Amino acid sequence: MAGLGQGLELKQQQKLSPLQIQTIKLIELPVQELEQRIRAELEQNPVLDDTPDPESDEERTEISLDELQEDDAIAPYKLRVNNRGKDPMPEYNTFSIHESFTQSLRDQLGYCELTPHERDIALFIIGSLDDDGYLRRDLPTLVDDLAFRAGIDTDEQEVEKILGIVQTFDPPGIGARDLRECLLLQLRTQKSSEAVNNAERILESCYTEFSNRHFDKIMSRLQLSPDALKAATAKIIRLNPAPGGQVDNAYEDRTQQIVPDIILTEGEDGRLSFEMPRFNIPQLRVNRKYADMLMDAQGASQRAQKEAVTFVRQKLDAAKWFVEAVKQRNNTLQKTMQAILDYQYEYFRIGDDTALKPMVLKDIAEITGFDISTISRVVSSKYIETPFGIYPLKYFFSEGMENSEGEEVSTRELKKALSECIAEEDKRKPLTDEQLVDAMQQKGYKVARRTIAKYRGQLGIPLARWRKEL
After folding, report:
1. What residue numbers bound the domain in which 83 lies?
2. Is the same domain home to 345 and 310?
3. Domain-located, residue 248
4. When you count CB atoms within 10 A of the terminal residue's CB, does the N or C end of the chain come out lower?
5. What's the predicted TM-score (pTM) here?
6. 79 shares a domain with 45
7. Cα angle for residues 71, 82, 86 (degrees, 5° grid)
8. pLDDT in tens, 150-180
9. Which pLDDT band, with edges at 50, 70 and 90, does 4 fall under?
10. Exposed/middle/buried for residue 10 (C-beta within 10 Å: 0-12, 13-18, 19+)
């Protein structure tokens, strides 16, 4: 028939095995979450048990899945999986890291007496803040977004009222709509004094003059002495222009006590190596009641016996895949960390950012033979303890640029050199971005002005006119 036709479509689709899926999921987990995941698996798989078997003996061996023939009677001891490590679980050192400012604001919102309607508006405002903690949207736009995106009917007066509540949260300055408001919010949380009061007056009445460093105009308009102006200015320049935190420090955006997955060690010969804190993978065995169920199935119908054996086979398959995935997860992490240690050996030896070589995920992927996506999962949420601090593995990855001699240097080294240039400048005549290009050139770094501006912003260093001191 003309209206009918046949077609053949061939598709090549790569399907992941259960073991690969388990391994991918476990690779991303830091050690604490891995232990929690193991406990969850024990709870979800009723065949698994981590309590000692009172009838166990040393001659029992690990079960082979090939032995589980559906038409055989299965002795209980054959269902035992022995994978207990030799080392007991040590006491871990835990370290506090910065909490997500967004989550912190939500937590603080819980202490406010608000109606559900007001709470929804507050949550929307918190979700609209940028990485620096600013609300860079006007109120009419916010009201429209609340209506069309969240289905919340409100007006500008109510939104401003709720915004005022959010602006009382820690850290001070959160929710500001511009730098002036951010600084004023911070000043209003400080203990009243002449310097604080004068600082508020300057920002309220002479913000433009202060931004342009027209100090004579400020002293004349506000009737301030040079000493009073200097004290007020000192208060202002110590305020935080980005209370939400810099994007460059996003790896700190995590809310938990962390346990380093890796600890840098130095041998007696001075050679650096690392160790991964041991954790206790419980001894997995089949729960007695399921073994008894199989024994009882011998007298039951063939169908009932097969169903019982199939059930235990499925659960035991899941257990074996899980144990093997944990092993592969650790092997992958160890191989990746060894590659990072070898690549950045000089940095790990002295802990100086200038020794940190440019390194991207592709570099480590090529060394280990893993996919870039695998390396990305390995370094995600993993921390290493070193003699000079606790660092996420992400910290050691950065792009590179060439210095004046054509050698590639990391962006972290460039930022450190830039910080040194600014620290060494005359604060009465701070260096502009153009002048910082020359200063960096004298240190041997070829950097464009726009790169200077970018790095200065990531370091939280203001423009030259804001760094000027009396």
Report:
1. 32-90+280-316
2. no
3. no
4. N
5. 0.49
6. yes
7. 175
8. 788 889 999 999 999 999 988 888 999 988 8
9. very low
10. exposed
